[in-house]
């Protein structure tokens, strides 16, 4: 009984004295070192920020096809920070009419397209269906 108490006491002392400062950070209270945001009347914008704990971000957006029926915003930017594991993270992105495209060495990489699928796609591209089989797409839904 006495030895169990000593083991529990030793674990409690070790736990209380462990240095966890590298794990537990007060990021919630990190000061904003710099911040800027500029927006133009036509919708273009740019921003940047930096915090006291080493987070940095910047980006810009440009309105494309402003005078068309389908205008869209093309945005790009990046963010840099250190992960909880101590790994430097750098993420860049582009978002446009084709969607959101992030890039960074920490992101997973999709597997290669299987050779059979590549050959199938090449065959389809080389042998399009006859024109009479292809139906006209509807003019506009809605």
TrEMBL record:
GO CC terms: chitin-based extracellular matrix
Signal peptide boundaries: 1-18
The entry's keywords: Cuticle, Signal
Presence of the UniProt keyword GTP-binding in the record: no
Domain of life: Eukaryota
InterPro entries with a match to the protein in the record: CHIT_BIND_RR_consensus (IPR031311), Cuticle_Struct_Prot (IPR050468), Insect_cuticle (IPR000618)
An annotated Gene Ontology molecular function: structural constituent of chitin-based larval cuticle
PROSITE patterns, alphabetized: CHIT_BIND_RR_1 (PS00233), CHIT_BIND_RR_2 (PS51155)
Record's protein name: Cuticular protein RR-1
Species annotation: Spodoptera litura (Asian cotton leafworm)
